[in-house]
Amino acid sequence: MLKKIIIKGAKILTMTAYNEAGIINGDILIEGQYIKEVGKVSYQVDDVEIINGNNCLALPGLINCHTHAAMTLLRGYADDMELMTWLEEKIWPREAKLGADHVYWGSMLAILEMIKSGTTTFTDMYFFMDNVAKAVEEGGIRAVLARGMIGFNDQDNLTLNESKSFISNWHGEGKGRIKCMLGPHAPYTCPPDYLVKVMDLAQELKVGIHIHLAETKQEFDDIRKQYGKTPVKHVYDLGLLNHPVLAAHCVHLTEEDIAILQECSVGVAHNPTSNMKLASGMAPIPQLLEAGIKVGIGTDGTASNNNLNMFEELHLASLLHKVSWGDPTVLPAYQVLQMGTIFGAQTVGLIDEIGTIEVGKKADIILIDLNKPHLYPSHDIVANLVYSAQGSDVKTSIIDGQIVMKDREVLTIDEEKVIYEAQRYAQKIME
Amino acid sequence: MLKKIIIKGAKILTMTAYNEAGIINGDILIEGQYIKEVGKVSYQVDDVEIINGNNCLALPGLINCHTHAAMTLLRGYADDMELMTWLEEKIWPREAKLGADHVYWGSMLAILEMIKSGTTTFTDMYFFMDNVAKAVEEGGIRAVLARGMIGFNDQDNLTLNESKSFISNWHGEGKGRIKCMLGPHAPYTCPPDYLVKVMDLAQELKVGIHIHLAETKQEFDDIRKQYGKTPVKHVYDLGLLNHPVLAAHCVHLTEEDIAILQECSVGVAHNPTSNMKLASGMAPIPQLLEAGIKVGIGTDGTASNNNLNMFEELHLASLLHKVSWGDPTVLPAYQVLQMGTIFGAQTVGLIDEIGTIEVGKKADIILIDLNKPHLYPSHDIVANLVYSAQGSDVKTSIIDGQIVMKDREVLTIDEEKVIYEAQRYAQKIME
Questions:
Q1: Which of A375, B10, B110, B403 could form a disulfide with B69 if both were Cys (CB 3.0 to 4.6 A apart)?
Q2: For residue B389, what are the domain limits?
Q3: Do A47 and A72 have their domain in common?
Q4: In chain B, which residue's Cα lies nearest the Cα of A311?
Q5: How confident is the model over B358-409, as pLDDT tens digits?
């Protein structure tokens, strides 16, 4: 028999309405992996687990559209540096020392942190992906995973073959919580002939493509110099955007690029903290949204953030574009929350399964403890959530119908052990 | 006999060194209001209260250099609006309904939130200031208070007289925790002849002046049109900057303005969230710091933030200027932390009392619980603090030698009652 859970007497922000009128007072019935009822639920006490939703806000779990989870091991290792110095002298030499076990423990630390700050799905691009998938399976989180692929010197198609076997092993695993994509790193690390091979493989495996695109001015200038066109136009002309594509960053875009992204229904992962911290620039997000492009939000890796706290990203997405556009009305609270939930689900291709609280969707739900000084008074619960809440206000988290955190205690992960091992493996790469 | 407290076995970030070499492992002895020893402390168990500092970071309490505490009652009431519409249609009509009790409960809610997120001193400008001072006295926090003064139609010098009596009643009260300033609101709300009266009173009472200055482009343009000079030059020519001045915002400045601020040792309160949320602009903070100007950090009121969480402000100060200057090396983590502590103390005129952990200073110390997933690994404790910590990571807070929060429980305030009353008074002004 399927396990039943009822969240009883919560405020429910379904994210299905076009505005915050979508808040209802009521219950949510979960059966197995799915949401079965929303509103007034009748139930028998003996066959369900009851979660008290009193003074809590239930909303869809947050979707982190772009990260490199295992980079938690490099959190705080190198900050406040020029991008290329940072990569070449700090990040890459240490990443070269990472083994499969490092990636497992780094990913576990990331998953622990994400669950504790309200993320229920993350989208990852890294390596030793079998171990990332293993961590996802054990941690109980949902994930869209891609092996990061660099096209230079890919002798014997090593990364292509590795991606292929990763996808055949893991796509749909974890009771469907794990989805896979191909992850060609970026136009400047994947030459055209390699990208063609990636497209062929995407076609064969019927999976989407996750790529960094137009992140820095340097990339924009280099690609233009090398190919005579912008990064977006370059991959468009290669046919890459005929596939379902998740494009991370999209900071440096022309009007034509925006039209292309719209025409090809490209999903964009906006990473406000990373773009600010690395001084990559300010992505034209209000323009992308205006054009009807699907925009989700990501944290990027912790080496350039330095956390995986989606509440900070929601907050920053709104603030950054208000000041950069000189207009306090852009990216209002509810729209930013859509980017963190329903738009994120569209962006990563999971809108049929998650992103809203609706009957028939998978039960990915977080409960916010509203009993905090900074969440009073309650004039506007959505504004309070986006502009004042902290990741630590998440009290309980349900993913795929499983309670993964209850009253701040993560039930799927041995917190003490993960912290201990992650610290140990982080020290190893510094030796 | 004076009460003794020992913080035992903590990591201590004294903020006295020019870099993070200032972290030592050891104990802190507090006697009465003062720090007596830092390092290895010998003690007898029976006459001291011991605080276990294991896996904690002790640092000077954060200093919020500019806020309007009682505006918590308006948190989330009106967001994502044009500045003047927001003020004229939303904020001012509701503020007109505030009475002394509203201000008391709004300030109590603010103080509760500030203590729970690591602030030990705040700098306030509002009205019904007797009730703000009363809340400060009861809540156990440290504050620099000013009655906000508008110079139009100030018949019979009402606000000047009120300020004078407020200062004579409260300056130095709360065992010295309360300091007062004069608070002329801004150059565009205080005509020159009124500012002259303010200066005379400041001279007479020997107090500093807290003023909003060069916050918006509109103010910059209006003042230039009216007086033929920039806001900074305007108040400089009036002689205002010959007094100790705390200038909030300073977003719109010329090179000459920066030279004036430097020449007059003006303290600047930078409010990154407020400047972003209201789209006021990006203050030239790296340039001000380069010129040797004292810059602290503030939250501004919750109506334009929407919280009083200084950890978010530290974080944002660094990120905002990295992206606005296109340079990831500006405002590195340690410098931002200086702005939140030692520079803040200089800015508000309290550097002889607070801002560092040093023998002879008042004991304003917070303990960060490092046992959090997002604070591992421990490559760089300062980077973790500025780029990854949340307000809720503050475990214990000591202000003026008194433990005001222990293990997240605020000891000086009845949390439940304050939330209840603040909610009730917030609803009243909506009627």
A1: B110
A2: 4-60+360-410
A3: no
A4: B390
A5: 999 999 999 999 999 999 999 999 999 999 999 999 999 999 999 999 999 9
Neighboring chain A residues of B109 at a CB cutoff of 8 Å: 373, 376
The residue from B293, B313, B347 where one domain ends is B347
Q: Which of A57, A75, A114 to mutate to test the interface with B (most CBs of B within 10 A)?
A: A75
Residue B121 lies inside a defined structural domain of this protein: yes
CA distance B103 to chain A (A): 14
User: Does any CB of chain B come closer than 8 Å to the CB of residue A282?
Assistant: yes
Please check the confidence at residue B303 and state whether its pLDDT lies above 70.
yes
What domain count does chain B have? 2
For residues A54 and A71, state if they share a domain. no
Question: Is B427 among the domain residues?
Answer: no
Contact: A387, B79; criterion CB under 8 Å: yes
- Tell me if A269 is assigned to some domain: yes
- Across the range A242-265, mean pLDDT stands at 98
Q: Pick the most confident of A81-90, B42-51, B259-268.
A: B259-268
Q: In which band, very low, low, confident or very high, does the pLDDT at B42 lie, cut at 50, 70 and 90?
A: confident
The answer on B309 and B246 residing in a single domain is yes
Measured between beta carbons, which residues in chain A are less than 8 angstroms from residue B308? 374
Residue of A nearest to B274 (CA): A319
Q: Give the nearest partner residue to B328 out of A83, A312, A333, using CB atoms.
A: A83
B100 in contact with chain A, both atoms CB, cutoff 8 A:
no
Say if the Cβ atoms of A279 and B333 lie within 8 Å. no
Residue of B nearest to A330 (CA): B80
Instruction: Tell me which residue in A82, A302, A322 faces B277 most closely, judged by beta carbons.
Output: A322
Point out the domain boundary residue: A347, A377, A397.
A347
In terms of CA atoms, which chain B residue is nearest residue A424?
Answer: B377
B14 and B84 in a common domain: no
- The closest CB to that of B83, out of A72, A328, A381, belongs to A328
What's the pLDDT score for residue A45?
A: 64
Shortest distance between the Cα of B329 and any Cα of chain A, in A, equals 4
Please report, for the domain that includes residue B126, its CATH number. 3.20.20.140
**Which residue of B279, B319, B426 is in closest CB contact with A377?**
B426
Residues B302 and B388 in one domain: no
Which residue of A77, A79, A119, A409 to mutate against B (max B Cβ within 10 Å)? A79
Instruction: Please indicate, yes or no, whether residues A155 and A226 belong to a single structural domain of this protein.
Output: yes
Q: A401-414, pLDDT tens digit by residue?
A: 999 999 999 999 99
pLDDT tens profile A281-300: 999 999 999 999 999 999 99
Considering the domain architecture, whether residues A40 and A173 belong to the same structural domain is answered as no
pLDDT exceeds 80 at position A43: no
Is A316's Cβ below 8 Å from some Cβ in B? Answer: yes
> Residue B54 CB: number of other CB atoms within 10 A?
11
Indicate if B106 and B179 belong to the same structural domain.
yes
Give the CATH number for residue B369: 2.30.40.10
Residue A355 lies in a domain: no
